[in-house]
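RECORD TYPE: protein structure
NAME: DUF3793 family protein
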Amino acid sequence: MSHEVFQLMKSMNLKKLEIQLAIQCAPVLTGIKISNLLIVHNENSKYVMELFQDTEISFFILCVTREKTTFLIYRSTELISYLAKPNVKELLYRLGYQNQDVQYFLHSLRDKYESYMKEGLSFPHELGLALGYPVEDVYGFIVNKGQNFLSIGYWKVYANVLEKQKLFDQYDLAKEMTIRFISNGVSILEIIEMYHKKKLQRVAF
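PREDICTED:
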């Protein structure tokens, strides 16, 4: 993160929901990542649902605790395409998902994630697939029990380190750009719309 953006963040109210969205979800907001987790205080959960209700970004509640709500913020078409890839489907099958309908997957993942958060049961590694992580890294994390990774950034990397570092750099730039926008009064909805228009322009040409 650049010094300038770091200074911007120091002057911002980091509890403000739009700042939290910029920090936690910038790659999704700008269209370069399939999904992100968004964790907010329960008092803000209704606002999150209203914010994304009429946008191309979907939300799914993974867990509600006494104080906080965990959302999966995702781009539906991209997530469906990713989960339909043969190697992703194979890993999901090995993790017990014989029915790989996206809604079934999300509801089953929610059950497991809530059990992990509230009862201390085993962590559902398929969350990495819901977040669009490369399947080789999700599998590598499972078989290595989180150890022996080659690099670490937004997730632990087990293959293609240079390629993943380029991705992480893009995510960092998206975060900086989003923070700059918000500091200049641009809203989250306006950021989403800017990306949407750029996507339509690419399709048109």
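COMMENT: The first strand starts at residue 35 and ends at 41.
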